[in-house]
């Protein structure tokens, strides 16, 4: 009995095309091939539709073009950055931008008060806020959508620190505990990111008053807060850092506060990271005492507060 003929597989592109044309004369083969192609096409379309429904973006990019217009998208289906973008694009109150990251950095140093003399202490605070913004639409410098303000009722002096971007329309301020506010102007194309820095320098003549009230929190004469009052922004990631080379810092607590002083509601308490190498460093550097706290998706009207105390550093 003769052996069945061996199947001849095509070689190369033209060989594949010729083989398909020959086989397509068989109606059963043609129907099977078309059915397989249709099933594969339906599988691909169904997968793409499902991915679209769950909000997945195949492009790992800030932008996705739809109907000729750049649309801001997230980097995946979840995460607090994706949530912040959704909050910023809320149809009821859309934001021109969200703040991807805001880091409020405070350097606290104690030294002799030359005006009052020993044993009085003068405290200086150098405050800087580092922002990274994501534009949800085109932003023009003339819009004045970014307003910055620094206030500290405990401060005896407040001194302006010029930031990285154009700042104008300052409303004055008394210079004592109230630096009022000013506009920061910039241009950002939709979907682009922009970094900027603002700041202020303060002087406090110790001791502070006892039983002070700050947004419903009572503070002793040896306690203070670093606070970021968030009036109208959506902030995906907010960090407060306090450091000193002259005093030992002790974290008390860190939380979000909503509402006025008399009726403030504290929520979203977070853990505080603490590191103190002041006086223990083996290098020529003096060492630092540092505390920090971090929040995610801070909404308009929420105020981040890091309450802390301190102890005088006595050099060995």
Commentary on this structure:
With 316 residues, the chain is an alpha+beta fold. 15% of the residues lie in helices and 44% in strands. The protein has three domains: 14-53; 57-93, no CATH class; 94-312, Sandwich (Immunoglobulin-like), CATH 2.60.40. The strands form five sheets. Strands 6-9-4-3-13-17-16 form a seven-stranded mixed β-sheet. The radius of gyration is 31 Å and the shape is elongated.
Mean pLDDT: 81
Given as residue ranges, the uncertain stretches (5+ residues, pLDDT < 50) are 54-63, 65-70
Q: What's the total number of strands?
A: 18
H/E series, N to C? HHEEHEEEEEEEEEEEEEEEE
Residues in helices, as a percent range: 10-25%
**Ends distance:** 104 Å
Overall geometry comes to elongated
Number of domains: 3
Please report the number of helical segments: 3
CATH class of the largest domain: Mainly Beta
- The share of residues in extended strands comes to 35-45%
CATH architecture grouping of the largest domain: Sandwich
CATH topology (level 3) name of the largest domain: Immunoglobulin-like
Biggest sheet record? 7 strands, mixed
Summing up helix and strand content along with how strands pair, one would put the structural category as alpha+beta
């Amino acid at each position: 009995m003769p052996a069945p003929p061996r199947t001849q597989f095509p070689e190369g592109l033209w060989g594949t095309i010729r083989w398909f044309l020959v086989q397509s004369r068989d109606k059963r083969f043609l129907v099977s091939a078309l059915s397989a192609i249709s099933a594969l096409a339906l599988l691909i379309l169904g997968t793409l539709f499902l991915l679209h429904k769950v909000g997945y973006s195949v492009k790992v990019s800030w932008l996705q073009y739809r109907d000729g217009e750049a649309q801001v998208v997230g980097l995946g289906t979840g995460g607090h950055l994706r949530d912040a973008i959704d909050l910023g694009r809320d149809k009821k109150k859309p934001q021109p931008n969200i703040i991807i990251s805001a880091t409020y950095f405070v350097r606290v140093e104690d030294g002799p008060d030359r005006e009052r003399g020993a044993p009085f202490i003068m405290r200086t605070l150098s405050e800087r806020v580092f922002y990274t913004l994501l534009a949800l639409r085109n932003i023009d410098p003339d819009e004045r959508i970014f307003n910055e303000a620094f206030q500290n009722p405990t401060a005896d002096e407040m001194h302006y620190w010029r930031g990285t971007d154009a700042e104008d329309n300052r409303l004055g301020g008394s210079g004592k505990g109230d630096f009022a506010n000013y506009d920061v102007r910039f241009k950002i194309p939709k979907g682009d990111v922009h970094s900027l820095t603002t700041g202020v320098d303060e002087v406090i003549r110790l001791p502070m008053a006892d039983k002070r009230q700050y947004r419903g929190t009572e503070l002793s004469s040896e306690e203070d807060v670093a606070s970021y009052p968030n009036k109208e922004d959506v902030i995906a990631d907010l960090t407060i850092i306090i450091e000193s080379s002259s005093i030992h810092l002790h974290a008390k607590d860190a939380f979000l506060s909503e509402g006025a002083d008399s009726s403030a509601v504290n929520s979203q308490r977070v853990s505080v990271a603490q590191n103190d190498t002041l006086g223990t460093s083996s290098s020529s550097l003096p060492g630092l005492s540092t505390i920090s706290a971090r929040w995610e998706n801070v909404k308009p009207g929420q105020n981040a507060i890091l309450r802390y105390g301190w102890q005088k550093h006595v050099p060995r």
